[in-house]
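For reproducibility, we list the full input for the thiamine diphosphate complex.
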Amino acid sequence: MEKAILSGNEAIARGAFEAGIRVASAYPGTPSTEILENVVNYPTIDASWAPNEKVALEVCIGASFGGARALATMKHVGLNVAADPLFTLSYIGVRGGLVLVVADDPEMHSSQDEQDSRNYAKFAKVPMLEPADSEEARLFTRLAFDISERFDTPVLLRSNTRISHGKSIVNLHDPVEGLPEPCIVRDPAKLVMLPANARRRHPLVEKRIVDLEAWACEQSFNRIEEGEGDVGIITAGISYQYAREIFPKAPLLKLGMVYPLPKDLIREFAARFKTLYVIEELDPFLEEAIRAMGISVIGKEIFPICGEFTPGRVEAAVTGKEPAAAYSCSEDLPGRPPNMCPGCSHRGVFYTLKQLGAFVTGDIGCYTLGALPPISAMDSCVCMGAGISNATGLAKVLPASERPKVVGVMGDSTFLHTGVNSLMDLVYNQSTATILILDNRATGMTGRQDNPSTGYTLMGDPTHVVDIEALCRSVGVKHVQVIDPYDIDLVREVLQTEMARPEPSVIIARRTCMLERRGGAERRPPLAVDPEKCVSCRACLKVGCPAIEWERTADGKGKAVINALLCVGCGLCQQTCKFDAMGESRGK
Amino acid sequence: MENNVKNILLAGVGGQGTLLASEVLSEVLMMAGHDVKKSEIHGMSQRGGSVTSHVRYGSRVYSPLIPEGKADILFGFELLETYRYLPMLRKGGAVVVNNLKIAPAPVASGLVEYPDDIPGKLAAAVADTTLVDGMELALEAGNYRTVNTVLLGALSNRMEIEEQMWIEALKKLVPERFLEENLKAFALGRGVKAQDLTKATAIGS
Ligand SMILES: Cc1ncc(C[n+]2csc(CCOP(=O)(O)OP(=O)(O)O)c2C)c(N)n1
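The corresponding predicted structure, in tokenized form, follows.
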């Protein structure tokens, strides 16, 4: 058997390929993004980026109606967007197996919250598997399709940042053969969720959970690992690894399916121990269910509910002592927050918004970094699409004197995700807010994926380009214009005019992302600071470009220098320098 | 079960090529017959932020994260980031570090100073510290982007894995057209053995 060292995301893609999926659809979101970026390498699968997670899941449901196996993937907050189809799909069930991978982000490495997706399994009454490493990610994904078809249910597979982005060794298996060919099969009593049909389906959903619960007691993915001592551990997913690291010899019940729980197996295991630990990241999901069975356990009274686990955090919870460190750094070290890239088209826009004193209802993307110093020009950020609708609501309640300050900001991918609905509302309900769409021709934050406005599909085929201007006009915005965000004077002038206008307007700031895959970004020769002209005023530092560094000088005032390896010559700093100190470097 | 797991912590700055280095490292370890786990964060922090990669190997690895204070080798791509993660190193551990400063935003914008003499501080704390002039050697290899491979070469001296296996892993993971310069970079890095505490210099200056 061939072995490979794969990330959890690569392994999920492999598992889905082995399970014979024909369709995969997703909207990018860390840490789930690379699943589809790997699925697309299997030529037998139609893999695509959907504009949002709800659409992705619905595409997969359609494929399942046709009898094909399908995979939808998303990050944890994406499942909030896809929750609507998920809940009804639970009643409908599947024809071709359907698996939804949801990747949580405990510790919020790249997210706005750390919701625990296991709650969705219970809420939507669908089974959920949770792998503990890449091999299980492959195996469980493959298995999830069998479970889906056997029990006529969608199946959730929960990953998280450490599983998705961690690598470990995987055994590669051959794909299944002999799956049925897709075709139309009419079955309205199952597929048309009118109240009368749904009423007949609901009891089946309840029975399905009971059946799964009994079945799961017999399956090897829920396993008891015998050990020594009189303390038992119940755990699942990544927490299993930390539990084993700290308690290498303890008897342990490792759950592969976290919903529904194998109650008889849990009872049998629990009966053997006086003390039982439930070790799980985030919510007391297993703990509450096990307590409800009348079994007493130790859980969140000692283990943290916030943040991710580490071996040290688990150990500290159990022993009450922080692990000892041999070394420490006594001094306060400067932090290293993430920053927009040199030449990022978002930078000048935020710089200008700040100067104009705008109240920016922002959104999620690379541009959220506009909230960080030194620019600090974003005043709110809730969820994808909210930048525009928050502006609408805020403008409704402000006095006329403050209303013009409201500017809703979002990126192109965010606009096409759900922002377009918000814009429709803004016009329909006659708000006056100004909207800025930062169109960098990429879904930047998650790794410059394509989207409906980039002209390419995930499979690399050229495709129709959504005309964002026309889209804005068609929902009724009369004042739509496209500007170059590198031209700060223009950005300021246009923003001033549009913010003062008592009507909705959309400004599209368009420039290709520096990271865009097809070389579309413009790179000009790096600039250099003329030390004779630099008067140490620090104005250029306000744009927060990583290529500008402040160098000590003998007189103690310091001077700006440009790092030629980083500078892409966007000219933003040049426009902020009143002393004309930045120019094209002559080379040395 | 005997705990024979070894831990290497990579620390650097987003965009420095730490990911490729940790990839080659874990590939080599798998080829050498170890169970291997590696864990890192992609996403937000890639935008010039601080990045780490945990690589663990042995007969059976559980946690993908190195337990706090248990790193055997702190493998640094940038001085400040290496110093930041010093508390992860176990007593008697080793440091292999690139002699490079990259100013983080608060330093670049003149708000605070880059900490003084990190090579000296590292060497004072950890006897087994190797300072590598990665940029210089990478330029010698023909491309400044091969710094990560130079550093892997220097790290390889600390590990009981045949040179040929490293070369095979590089052949597998480095694109053909960059292979030659990377093999050269690896060899140059492997030549760095003694402690060399020359003064750190910032790129571009
Ligand atoms: C519902 C939801 N899905 C996915 C994400 C992950 N996500 C964060 S930002 C982003 C992309 C933003 O792209 P764009 O709006 O084009 O801005 P850019 O990053 O290119 O500046 C995505 C997909 C999320 N936060 N919420």
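The domain at 2-216 of chain A is CATH 3.40.50.970 (Rossmann fold). The pocket of thiamine diphosphate is lined by residues A 27-29, 75, 77-78, 81, 364-367, 384, 410-414, 438, 440, 442-446, 513 (CB under 6 Å). Both points were considered when choosing residues for closer inspection.
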